[in-house]
Design a protein that fits this description.
Elements: H1 4-8, H2 18-21, H3 33-38, H4 41-78, H5 84-90, H6 99-104, H7 116-143, H8 146-152, H9 156-167, H10 174-191, H11 204-236, H12 241-265, H13 272-277, H14 283-310, H15 313-322, H16 326-335, H17 341-370
Helix pairs in contact: 4-14, 4-15, 4-16, 5-7, 5-12, 7-11, 7-12, 8-16, 9-10, 9-11, 9-15, 10-17, 11-14, 11-15, 12-14, 14-15
Length: 371
């Protein structure tokens, strides 16, 4: 799967300046200020509540979808699954269900639409980057305990701050930089956590490979978020739900096709029948695991892209990190992952970093209300 100031300005087709990219929640964009002053107070308040409702719904989809997809992905490996390309394929293969959304929220044509060829090229590039990201995540989830995996993913916020600054003109403050340092430190603590080696039955070399690939996937994921925001702001310039759905559908379709090629080219498809037969909880459980993993990733993706569209890529990543304490705790309960002292410290540091970022939003919101 734009900043409230930057994203709302898309409807006017204007470019976003540096000051406007700073996240301010809630409130209309500067471009909409005159209209908001002329409109009745009740109408403005209704729009404000509607915006909050959409953001809350997107955050719910992202949190629930990401948590369930991560746990199901680890369950697939713990029950005997071993195909990394299939795991990557599942992260985007559920995109056809999103066509139902286009049926209820059809796209409206306009005279200033971006040329189809340009949009198609962007979707292809994003889809291929997404494919690389999916396969790295699949390796990480295979070689790491789910608690370690999810905590390393916290580093994606640090990457996203960098990409948002370079690509989206995001303003950096002391609190945001504090968040970046803390989340990076959390990931590094897990990288040198020797007690986790061999816990999932893998060697130290594979554990380190899983750590590096998960770290690389987190950086790639952050790049995708910033590129999507850049596309919404400067290319698509539409403030419609169908634009969000189209972004997810077509990038996911490219990634799905690429993963399908990888599945057959690697020869892993030959082992799928035997994998299903030997799945510890049975064939039906195997099929349901694949189906609901795919659906969960699409639910998460809709929330992710929706938050990019409504607020910003950085805010979308912050909500993704909000699920950080949930996955490790569920991993301990469901998969009996070891929650040692280093992991607890890493989780607390990550939560501290998350709170620092949320407090920055509070200050921005307070400043916007007093202006």
């Amino acid at each position: 799967m734009a900043d409230n100031n930057g994203g709302n300005s898309n409807s006017g087709g204007a470019s976003t300046n540096t000051a406007e990219v700073q996240i301010q929640i809630p409130g209309p964009s500067k471009n909409e200020a005159p209209a908001a002053q002329e409109a009745p107070a009740g109408s403005s308040e209704a729009r404000n509540w509607k915006w909050w409702f959409v953001v809350a719904a997107d955050a719910f989809f992202l949190t629930v979808g990401q948590t369930s997809a991560t746990l199901l992905g680890r369950y697939y490996y713990s029950q005997g699954g071993s195909s990394k390309w299939l795991s990557a394929f599942l992260q985007t293969a559920g995109f056809p269900i999103l066509f139902f959304g286009l049926f209820f929220f059809p796209s409206k044509s306009s005279s200033g639409e971006t040329p189809i060829g340009k949009v198609a090229m962007i979707y292809v590039v994003l889809g291929l980057i997404m494919t690389a990201d999916d396969i790295m995540y699949s390796h990480g989830l295979m070689y790491l305990p789910v608690s370690t995996y999810s905590l390393i993913c916290a580093s994606q916020l640090a990457f996203n701050v960098i990409f948002s600054y370079v690509l989206n003109s995001q303003k950096l403050t002391g609190l945001i930089m504090n968040s970046v340092v803390l989340l990076t430190l959390s990931a590094l603590l897990l990288g040198v956590n020797h007690e986790s080696y061999g816990y999932t039955g893998v060697s130290r070399g594979k554990y380190l490979l899983g750590f590096l690939l998960t770290l690389g996937a987190s950086g790639t994921y952050s790049l995708i978020l910033s590129l999507m925001q850049l596309t919404f702001e400067n290319v698509i310039k539409k403030q419609t739900f169908s634009a969000v759905l189209n972004m997810q559908i077509y990038t996911a379709s490219v990634a799905t096709f690429a993963c399908l090629i990888g599945l057959f080219a690697s020869g892993e498809w030959k082992d799928l029948k035997g994998e299903m037969d030997s799945f510890q909880s049975g064939q039906f459980s195997y099929l349901m695991t694949l189906v609901w993993t795919s659906v969960s990733w699409q639910v998460a993706s809709i929330g992710m892209v929706g938050l990019i569209f409504e607020v910003s890529s950085l805010f979308s990543n912050v909500i993704s990190i909000f699920a950080l304490p949930i996955v490790p705790l569920l991993g301990v309960m469901v998969f009996h992952d070891e929650m040692n002292g280093v992991k607890i410290i890493a989780m607390l540091i990550s939560i501290w970093g998350f709170i620092s970022y949320v407090y920055q939003h509070y200050l921005d919101n307070k400043k916007a209300r007093s202006a």
